[in-house]
Amino acid sequence: MMRKIKSPVAFLLIFFLLTTAIPAPVAAQERGFSAAGSSGDNGKEYITTVAVVAVVVAVGLLVRSAARNSKAGKFYRQGEDYAAQGRWDLAADAFAEAAKINPKYRDVQSKLAHARQQAEKMLIALGDDAREKEKLEDALVYYQKALKYQPDSVLARARLEDLGRQMVAVYYRRGQIYETQNRWEEALREYEQAYRIDPQYEDLRDRYLRAKARVEGGQTLLGVLYFLNYSGYAGLDTSLLQAVQDELATAGADRYVLLDYRRVQMIISEQAEALGERFDDSLAMDIGRLLGADAVLTGEIGAITRQGGRLRIQVTAKILEVPGAKVLKEVEFTHTFSRETTMENLPLAMPGLAQELVKKILQ
To answer: Poorest-confidence range of 38-52, 84-98, 161-175?
Structure first.
């Protein structure tokens, strides 16, 4: 029984070697030419040339294939050596290189898959060990590398999520310690790392912004506190507060860093009764200190009147420095609403009022 030739390159080489063995005169005679004639000579030369070119090409392909297999074999053997040493990440890298050079080299695909599985287990174990020793940054690197070798690893992703929560708490505590020591650059570094992971963690956003304002300078950390509402329209103060917060965050971004609105209102609701009997400058200072603000904004909404068929409202606002209550800016004006504004849709017109108020504050 003849042995089946598996290599297409080898088959091509044998085919063209057989081609060169065909006698040129016979080939010429089969085409109706004379072996002694010029036409026969031309036919012989043509066949010989084709055969030589074919052999050269086939040999070139064989050499190229052999070089590729040699290079793949080098990485393959490296992978086996690393695997024997239990260095599964390096083994996976080596097998991956071998597979890139020749995907069909031996059993490189199964070796690669096994090495990646073992690398994931090894790196998660290393991450767990680093985490126990509170080397959280090292643990993070190990878990991330585990995902590199097994992107669909549920265990590695769960470890990363859990570690993230732990790291936020650690960075946050470090930042607090530096803050109490007025070491603002170090506090900013810790808060910034925590902020990248979870901006919603406790009052992290405010602490991060406060440290940023301290280090970079040029901006005032501002808490928008309250407007006393004498308009007779319930809830108008809340609508105006939110609109002023949004407008200052954009139009006044180069001058003010705003504390989180929800946290400010939470502090006010929790502490107002305990800190003072009424909303005045003294209470504003107490709340400002609790917030760690540089300044606070308070104001009043006056009565709503009508002139020429249009609603009008009196508004005052002032920015107080914390903790001395020095007035940094004070504005008072009457805002006239558009003709489309009625008592029913008045809250929807607060952004326009806030825009005028902020413009006067920034002047």
So the answer is: 38-52
Tokens of 5: 């030739």
Is there a domain that residue 203 lies in?
A: no
Among 286, 357, 284, smallest CA distance to 327 is for: 284
Instruction: Tell me what pLDDT residue 30 has.
Output: 47
Number of domains the chain contains: 2
Cα angle 173-185-166, degrees, rounded to a multiple of 5: 25
Q: Is residue 178 part of a domain?
A: no
Query: Confidence band (pLDDT; 50, 70, 90) for 29?
Result: very low
pLDDT at 64: 62
State the pLDDT at residue 205.
87
The answer as to whether 295 is a domain residue is: yes
Residue 275 has a pLDDT of 67
Residue 276 lies in a domain: yes
> What's the angle, vertex CA 245, arms to CA 261 and CA 313, rounded to 5?
125
> For residue 338, what are its two tokens?
């558009």
CATH number at residue 251: 3.40.50.10610
- Residue 28 pLDDT: 43
Q: Would the pTM count as exceeding 0.70?
A: no
Q: Which of 92, 107, 122 is the last residue of a domain?
A: 107
Gyration radius of the chain over CA positions? 40
What would the pLDDT profile of 313-337 be if each residue is shown by its tens digit? Answer: 999 999 999 999 999 999 999 999 9
Residue 313 buriedness (CB in 10 A; 0-12 / 13-18 / 19+) = buried
Q: Does residue 223 share a domain with residue 94?
A: no
Q: Which of 72, 107, 142 is the last residue of a domain?
A: 107
Distance between CA atoms of residues 233 and 256, nearest Å? 30
Tell me which long-range contacts 42-47 makes (C-beta under 8 A, separation of at least 24). 47/19, 47/22
Indicate whether 223 and 103 sit together in one domain.
Answer: no
The whole-number pLDDT of residue 49 equals 61
The parent domain of residue 97 ranges over 8-107
Neighbouring CB atoms inside 10 A of 53's CB total: 11
